[in-house]
Specification:
Helices cover 69% and strands 0% of the residues. By secondary structure, it is an all-alpha fold. The chain is globular. About 8% of the residues have low confidence.
Length: 175
């Protein structure tokens, strides 16, 4: 059973029995927290608050949730992005990309802290929309289709933008 189909079953169960939402919560809490943690400049308290707000919104909107064939995470990322926009508008925060750390347990490649800081600095000069695509693709490990759904763009456009960004980083910075 693929993730999207599994999520559809979990959503239907949660729409009939709100206590079943706990399964979706447990499935996605860590990924959503990590996403918000990096988006808030690695501020754990803010990331926790925003994660709680994310799942509160998701729970209250559950009865109106309409299945569109994507994993539930695509919807959660959309809500999380909206929360981040609201947060940055309220707090006028500028994230210091030099201070960000990348901790991705899925990677087979070992990068030193200096390599990670340098990479974030290089990525930081790319347009914000491209930075977001790279983050969703390589940190959140989403497919191009899921990213397209989250950002409201075609998957081919996402694939092209990510490929061009990687080419640019490789050419300009010898990465």
């Amino acid at each position: 059973m693929n993730e999207a189909h599994e999520d559809q079953q979990l959503i239907l169960a949660a729409q009939q029995d709100p206590q079943a939402f706990a399964v979706l919560y447990e499935k996605y809490i860590d990924r959503m927290y990590q996403f918000l943690y990096f988006r808030t400049g690695q501020n754990p308290e803010t990331a926790e608050d925003m994660t709680a707000e994310l799942f509160t919104r998701a729970f209250t909107q559950l009865s109106r949730f309409s299945w569109q064939g994507y994993p539930y995470s695509a919807y959660l990322y959309q809500v999380a992005r909206s929360l981040c926009v609201d947060y940055y508008r309220k707090h006028a925060i500028v994230v210091d990309v030099d201070a960000l750390e990348l901790q991705d347990d899925r990677s087979d490649t070992v990068m030193t802290q200096m390599d990670i800081q340098l990479l974030w600095k290089k990525i930081g000069v790319l347009p914000k929309s491209v930075q977001e695509m790279l983050e969703l693709r390589y940190i959140e490990d989403l497919s191009f289709e899921e990213i397209g759904h989250i950002l409201g763009k075609k998957s081919g456009a996402i694939r092209t933008a990510v490929s061009r960004a990687i080419d640019r980083l490789q050419k300009e910075y010898e990465i």
